[in-house]
Amino acid sequence: MSSHKQQHLSKASIEKGYEENVVGVRGIVAFGIGLFLLIVVTFWLMWALYGVLEENAKETKSSDNPLALNDKERLPPEPRLQGAPGFGVDTPTGRVNLELTPPQSEYWVLEKEWKNLLEKGATDPKTGAVTVLPIEEAKKILLEEKPAAVSSPDAEKLFIESQLRYSSASSGREMTMRRR
Questions:
Q1: Maximum pairwise Cα distance, the chain
Q2: Could you count the other beta carbons within 10 Å of the beta carbon of residue 98?
Q3: Burial of 14 by CB count in 10 Å (0-12 exposed, 13-18 middle, 19+ buried)?
Q4: Label partner for 162 (CA 20 to 30 A): which of 55, 102, 134, 172?
């Protein structure tokens, strides 16, 4: 009932002192040669595939894609960490390079721009429309127009409501406290 063969011990095998080798060397050698050939064929196929893909890459690389992003479009949106080619601030006059400067230099450049806007104002370069006026000039223009003061009951109600704020006394449900 067992599935393996019974070996009959002969007088010659008892005299040798060891069992005879029944391993098929021919099968092992054939397996080794087959494995070697399989590896060689696989390497050759990969080399051929690499050549085909290389040609395809050269063909597609030569044609410029109209939807390809340029270097500036590839960047993530602002604010970004300091990265190459350098740290700077964009101003209306151009980009100010702030590499190798103290950390406060960004504030200094922006403060200069803000002061310039307050003193001289700004106009839209495309339309020429004034977008920012200096404070003194804006006051003069407003006084020249002589705006009429609104004194209707709706205006008074709006004025009173603008002074109210939410307090903890009403659990935030009603505006009860006046600003002082």
A1: 134
A2: 17
A3: exposed
A4: 134
Question: Each residue of 39-95: pLDDT tens digit?
Answer: 999 999 999 999 999 999 888 776 567 777 888 888 888 877 655 566 788 888 888
Dihedral over Cα of 11, 15, 19, 24: its sign: negative
With DSSP H G I counted as helix, E B as strand and the rest as coil, what are the percentages for the chain, rounded to 5?
Answer: 50, 10, 40
Under 8 Å between Cβ of 121 and 139? no
Closest by Cα among 77, 76, 75, 106 to 91 = 106
Tally helices (H) and strands (E) across the chain: 6, 6
- Is residue 130 within 8 Å of 123, Cβ to Cβ? yes
Q: Which of 108, 140, 143 is nearest to 121 (CA)?
A: 140
In this prediction the pTM is 0.34
